[in-house]
Design goal:
Order of helices and strands: EHEHEHHEHEHHHEEEEHEHEHEHEHHE
Distance between the termini: 35 Å
Number of strands: 14
Number of helices: 14
Strand order of the largest sheet: 7-8-9-13-12-10-11
Radius of gyration: 26 Å
Number of domains: 3
Structural class: alpha/beta
């Protein structure tokens, strides 16, 4: 619990230009639950209250008396760091006042933009008070070193755990591992819940068929029963969609640098329907991975084909395994086709191509799909994987894939727009359809973008940092 002499666990200081991040981090912390098995004196497993100023205040040489009292009534200070906050007189004054209370070691810097101690006004994210001497009244004292974390690299889950460990004074690694076990437990529950919803769907379908027979006997009663069945079906579908969003939201707790090798450069995807697509991994406003339902099927898109080997870490393998499990659908179809006839940047026939063996270990049957894709070749499959194709995809193939997804199939696509734009017309890559209908100045002609156009997304030529 918060100290007996303090009402707030922490005061959150930020520039009004970063107000959105202030609200976001405030919500993260107040909804965070300390794992039940963590040895922490916190009940009922909450971090406590956090103060966040919601009103714009004019810059001044001193902070308002009410804010000064709240800062003195907080155990810790959380500074949301960006080039905007580094130039904010208000943020700087709040830090100075907190440090004068003798708690310089209880300052937490949360970096959302820029770089610490860069010395350049356009990129420096630490306000002067964070870079000043440890004793604000003694200019010869050494600077403090606030506990800093970068949400761009750590993501929501790890950032919350780091802050919680610092605020509670416990070991981060221990708290993080307990958080991971708790999250994996929730995922298992959600998978079970999705399976239960699928059974409910089957029962509803059987009920609808029975009502159809009854409708032949009594038209009026049938219309009434059909309306009730439709209402029940819509309610069940809404519940399934909500469970699916929660499950995919947990997949998105994985950070980009956990699924890519050190030298891999991630690309960017853009989705045109934010209500349909669920973001899984992002860097600021740029998306790296996203997923959606499409009619009766599912689509998951990645901005680098390197994710498909799952070699980065146990987290990367876990993300890949859970993604494939979701894409295969509630019926558990375990037959996977991997396209290999369109200059895909996946070493489907190389010795170091680990994905087929990994999928087989997880209980899936894997088949290499060379040549053109059509309805017959996709018949009976549960999942189709296409990794960064540079060869031509015929309109008939794109139509067959769309029909496959509409019927309930899963589609896992990995593209890399910047790589295609910079290298696809180079030497050393020979295949049927290379450069056909392609113009590197027009990203809409990138074969992967033509493939995913029906689902409302595209890859761009941009790169993002990990």
């Amino acid at each position: 619990m918060v100290g007996a002499d303090k009402h707030y666990r922490a005061f959150i200081s930020y520039s009004q230009q970063d107000k959105g991040w202030g609200k976001r981090i405030h919500t993260w912390l107040e909804t965070y639950r300390v794992p039940v098995d963590a040895v922490v004196d916190v009940l009922p497993r909450r971090l406590g209250r956090f103060f966040r100023d919601e009103e714009d205040m004019a810059a001044a040489s001193d902070i308002a008396a009410i804010v000064r009292r709240v800062i003195e009534d907080a155990e810790n200070l959380i500074v949301i760091c960006s080039p905007r906050s580094a130039q904010s007189k208000w943020v700087n004054a709040e830090i100075q006042h907190f440090r004068r209370t003798g708690r310089a070691r209880k300052v937490f810097a949360v970096i959302i933009d820029g770089f610490p101690n860069s010395g350049h006004p356009e990129t420096e994210c630490f306000p002067p008070a964070l870079r000043a001497a440890g004793d604000p009244d003694n200019p010869d004292a050494l600077p403090i070193e606030p506990l800093g974390l970068d949400v761009r690299k750590d993501g929501r889950a790890k950032s919350c755990a780091r802050l919680a460990a610092g605020l509670l004074g416990v070991d981060f690694d221990d708290l993080w591992q307990r958080d991971r076990r708790r999250a994996e437990g929730r995922q298992r529950l959600l998978i079970g819940a999705l399976a239960s919803v699928s059974l409910v769907f089957a029962a509803l379908a059987a009920t609808a068929a029975w009502l159809g027979v009854q409708a032949e006997r009594n038209a009026v009663e049938a219309r009434q029963n059909a309306a009730e069945a439709q209402a029940q079906s819509r309610a069940a579908d809404a519940a399934r969609q909500q469970l699916q969003r929660e499950y995919l939201g947990m997949l998105g707790e994985t950070a980009i640098n956990e699924v890519l090798a050190k030298d891999d450069i991630p690309g960017e995807i853009i989705t045109t329907d934010p209500n349909a697509w669920i973001p899984l991994m992002s860097q600021g406003e740029r998306q790296f991975a996203a997923a959606r339902s499409y009619k009766s099927g599912r689509v998951l898109a990645l901005a680098h084909d390197g994710v498909l080997n799952g070699l980065r870490s146990e987290r990367s393998q876990g993300f890949l395994r859970r993604s494939v499990q979701w894409l295969a659908g509630p019926d558990g179809n375990r037959f996977i086709q991997i396209a290999s006839g369109h200059c895909e940047w996946l070493p489907t026939r190389a010795d170091n191509w680990t994905l087929p063996a990994r999928l087989s270990k997880w209980g899936y049957s894997v088949n290499d799909l060379p040549g053109q894709i059509d309805d017959q070749k996709l018949d009976g499959a549960g999942l189709l994987i296409i990794g960064n194709a540079w060869g031509d995809l015929a309109d008939s193939e794109i139509g067959a894939i769309e029909r496959f997804v509409s019927r309930g199939g899963g589609l896992l696509v990995a593209g890399l727009g910047w790589s295609w734009q910079g290298s696809s017309k180079g030497q050393g890559l020979d295949c049927i359809g290379k450069a056909m209908r392609q113009d590197v100045e027009d990203m809409s002609t990138y074969p992967m973008n033509r493939l995913v156009k029906p689902y409302g997304m595209r890859w761009t030529e941009a790169t993002i940092s990990k």
